[in-house]
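The records we work with from here on pair a chain with its fold. These numbers are not coordinates but entries in a learned vocabulary of local backbone shapes. To see the layout at work, look at the sequence and tokens printed below.
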Amino acid sequence: DARPEISYRSIFISDVHLGTRAAQAPALLDFLKRADADTYYLVGDIVDFWKVRRGPAWAQSDNDVIQKLLRKARKGSRVVYIPGNHDEALREYCGLNFGSIEIRRDAIFETAAGKKYIVMHGDEFDVVVLDHHQADEELPPALAIVNPNRADDLSGLGHLAAVGLVFLTLVAVT
């Protein structure tokens, strides 16, 4: 591997949906080759098990992304995998480590200035889910809820959901 062009304290990756035609694994792989981090937060839906169950569109580039992340972990980067709804089967393993990959329900991220945030996948805030999920009776306090399918989404950002941008919900711990 060539030396990365830029280093970060943390990189957050979410909703990649490997195993689907929309995954854009080659672009992610290119980014991972150019960037390095002390910690990688894989924040849900990295692999789309819903789609894989119905017949995956698994490309070599999907394998390459997984291998690149495993290599970064072997070389000393911390990798925290927080399952989302499309890879929820991994939630059974929260609290365990698979090699150097930590499987967690959520994680605490601390900024360089010392401010702490909890990192979790956005499906934790879904009230209406179209499969077997049961919504929590009460949502945790959050800085913002961005879900264009909810009537109480006042963020004004719902139009961005259709273009596949990552929405990470950071809830202040302090």
Observations:
- The helical segments are 25-34, 49-54, 60-74.
- Confidence is low (pLDDT under 50) at residues 127-146, 159-174.
